[in-house]
Amino acid sequence: MPTTTPAQPPAVDPAALVTDPYAVYGRLREAGPVHRVTGTDGLPAWLVTRYDDVRRAMSDPRLSLDKRNATPGGYRGLTLPPALDANLLNMDPPDHTRIRRLVTHAFTPRRVAALREPVRRTAESLLDAIAPHGHADLIASYAAPLPITVICELLGVAPQDREDFGSWTDALVAPDPARPDLARDAVRSVPAFFTRLLAAKRAAPADDLLSALIAVRDDEDRLTEDELTSLAFLILVAGHENTVHLIGNATLALLSHPAQLAALRADPGRLGGAVEELARYDGPAPLAIRRFATEDITIGGVTVPAGETVLLSLAAAHRDPRRFTDPDRLDVGRDATGHLALGHGIHYCLGAPLARLETEIALAALLDRFPGLTLAVRPDELRWRPSMRTRGLRALPVRF
Q: Strands, E, within the chain: which ranges?
């Protein structure tokens, strides 16, 4: 029979959720499938920890992404103005279905496939710049500039307008508590920038995604101005942030597991499958996007009341021994099919093919160029970004 009382969770050190989330979420997973916790804004939420429950919850229509279904005063996540808030991560059907249908008319497999050569050229150019030095911070010099360059190419953003994109993303996704002004500036700057850019694309359409999104229609339906701005913002943030950390975390995982790195060097053809395992092993998002129960719902034997927030722990699900054998071990030969790092169900990431493409090319170019690549510091000297929403390194010092 369902119960309304979750298991008593073990004590959680917030700092450990940044430095070692897998150990923390692992203890929570083994203590119980669902826990009452405090969200990132200090408000209560329900944390789901086991793979089967997380996967089911990601496609359960009773768990809404629309913040209007949240209990007043409850955890709501990142607050954005309407021009940025009308995006797919805040929508349920039928609005979600309508917008996703329109976007898929523009964001086609052909458009992603056409980026393969530009991604390769960009990766090689970035490596050319660092090669003479014998050492580098791979986040600042490679993992970060590669996706932002690709996203700007995709959207049709001119090179001279790209400088602020990375800082806007950082300020919104992992805000610095000491500099709240940066997030406020980003919230003002992003809509203003895309309003100007959309006007320019209307006046002079080009072969880019923004022009395609402006032009796309389904019978008499088309995207509104706020929907266009919000979609551009979502593509910028998700396409940049997640890929930076996927590349960075994957590189660190391989450097920390020499036998796995050697296996990939010996057989580069395994890299596509290895990207799936690397996404499972240390993906860019410890938590899925928050959801709100539209009715009383039972998860893992625990009843979550209507209106309350549900947090789905991908970090716990991906290390669940009920689903993955020896889950704390990196195995680039593992069949990691079923990992949830890029979503599941109707909210599966639209940009997943591009993230996979960029990560595979980035790793292939890096390993080919620098056969002697090693960490330049001890692993315990690495610093992670202070965020429970994202899992990413501040820097990745290497020598080659």
A: 34-38, 44-48, 63-64, 135-137, 291-293, 297-299, 302-304, 309-312, 374-375, 397-399
Q: What is the pLDDT of residues 1-50, one digit of tens each?
A: 344 566 666 667 777 888 889 999 999 999 999 999 886 667 789 999 99
Contact 160, 257 (CB under 8 A): no
**Confidence (pTM):** 0.92
Helix, strand, coil share of the chain (percent; to 5):
55, 10, 35
CA distance 252 to 49: 25
d(CA 23, CA 35): 16
Query: Which residues are 399's β-sheet partners?
Result: 135, 374
| b/e map 285-321, b = 16+ CB within 10 Å | bbbbbbbbbbeebebbbbbbeebbbbbbbbbbbbbbe
Which residues on neighbouring strands pair with residue 387, listed in sequence order? none
Can you read off the two tokens belonging to residue 54?
């997380």
| Coil, helix or strand at residue 313 | strand
Tokens coding 344: 């599941």
DSSP states along 104-155: HHHS-HHHHHTTHHHHHHHHHHHHHHHGGGSEEEHIIIIITHHHHHHHHHHH
Beta-carbon contacts of residue 179 (< 8 Å; ≥ 6 apart): 171
277-294 residue pLDDT tens: 999 999 999 999 999 999
